[in-house]
Design goal:
The protein is of the alpha+beta class. It is built from four helices and two strands.
Length: about 100
């Protein structure tokens, strides 16, 4: 049960957050006023792997993969499990397996 609480706390406190930073002027292809994207915060490793294991068939505009997992749904499931309630979600067994492996 403690691992579920840690998973919930990690998912609530961390999420992918990307910021723009100026390009380095000493680089060869420097573009004045150019910016690049840098991850300021990342999802927990278990959640990233969980999303990777459940790809969507639609993809993204840039051709990257998308996931069937929705953050709010996983948060709801974890809150229910931490409160000792049951859930009929198809992801419960996998989340409990991840929690058992983390413990």
């Amino acid at each position: 049960m403690n691992a579920l609480h840690e998973m919930l706390a990690g998912l609530e406190s961390h999420r992918l957050h990307v910021i723009l930073v100026p390009l380095n002027p000493s680089k060869r292809n420097y573009n004045e006023g150019g910016m690049r994207r840098v991850a300021a915060d990342k999802n927990p490793r278990w959640y990233s792997q969980f999303c990777y294991n459940h790809p969507s068939s639609r993809g993204t505009r840039r051709g990257g993969s998308d996931t069937r997992i929705r953050r709010q749904n996983i948060l709801r499931i974890l809150r229910r499990l931490c409160a000792g309630q049951s859930s009929r979600s198809k992801y419960v067994a996998e989340l409990l397996r991840i929690a058992a492996k983390a413990a």
